Amino acid sequence: MNKLAEWGKALADVFMPRLCPVCGNALVADEPYICRACLAALPRTHLEDIDFNTMEQLFAGKVPIERATGYFYYQKSSPYAQILFDIKYRHCPEMGQWLTAHAARDLRASGFFDDVDVIVPVPLHPSKLAKRGYNQSDYLARGLSQTLGLPVVNALLSTHAHGSQTRRGATDRWLNAQHAYALRSSHGRQLANKHILLVDDVVTTGATLEACSHALLTVAGVRVSLFTLATARLD
Ligand SMILES: [Zn+2]
To answer: What is the domain count for the chain?
Structure first.
């Protein structure tokens, strides 16, 4: 950024302060989305450092997964939940992209992303996409791709319009997510024998990720790992 642009941005921050979604304090010029203090205090899960962690246990016996992690803990009452809300509903998916780019730098040393070939976002049903205007998981995948230098492939289709997942019971959600995702027919050959990183914003019951994984595993030789920006406490 040149001096003038920097000065302009600083001035804009004075008159139209951008606020940290977590603490509500005004952001300074080099804090693009979340303030430094809140980012440092992010309730990280560190699940990637644990063998057979709680997220991997969630899928055990349901679908064969290589590895799984969520970057931070999601709790409804936590001010950090606002990040997920803003990404999904308040037209701020760029914050998600920025945060997953950061997460990828943070997690890279753990080896979590080693030997992953391609990143696949969980798709949004076309009717929801039309309403919201974007798929937040696309942005999360893009952020990971930015840091890891891996391609993003939109290999999945959402085939059923399902109602708001948040209002349904666990069994209902599970039933609803079954068969709701399918592989785009043109992507089978491209994904054969690849280690796929499937990406979503948050995991609660795991039904969506399970259904998407099943769809990906119909391709020969595919292995699937899971990354979510956040996860409910699963223990
Ligand atoms: Zn803050």
So the answer is: 2
Whether residue 201 contacts residue 123, with contact meaning beta carbons closer than 8 Å, is answered with: no
Is residue 101 domain-shared with residue 152, that is, in the same domain? yes
Supply the pTM of this predicted model. 0.88
Ion ligand 1 neighbours (CB, 5 A) are: 20, 22-23, 35, 38
Distance 170 CA to ligand 1 centre (A): 33
If asked whether residues 84 and 8 sit together in one domain, one would say no
Q: 113 and 216 in one domain?
A: yes
Helix (H) or strand (E) holding 116: none
pLDDT tens, position by position, 22-49: 999 999 989 999 999 999 999 999 999 9
Q: What is the whole-number distance in angstroms between the Cα of residue 113 and the centre of ligand 1?
A: 28
Q: Are residues 64 and 122 in the same domain?
A: yes
**Nearest Cα to Cα of residue 211 among 224, 229, 193:** 224
Distance 76 CA to ligand 1 centre (A): 17
Q: For tokens 């992953």, what's the residue?
A: 116
Q: Distance, CA 25 to ligand 1 centroid (Å)? A: 6
User: From the CA of 33, how far away is ligand 1's center (Å)?
Assistant: 9
Domain with 227 in it:
43-232
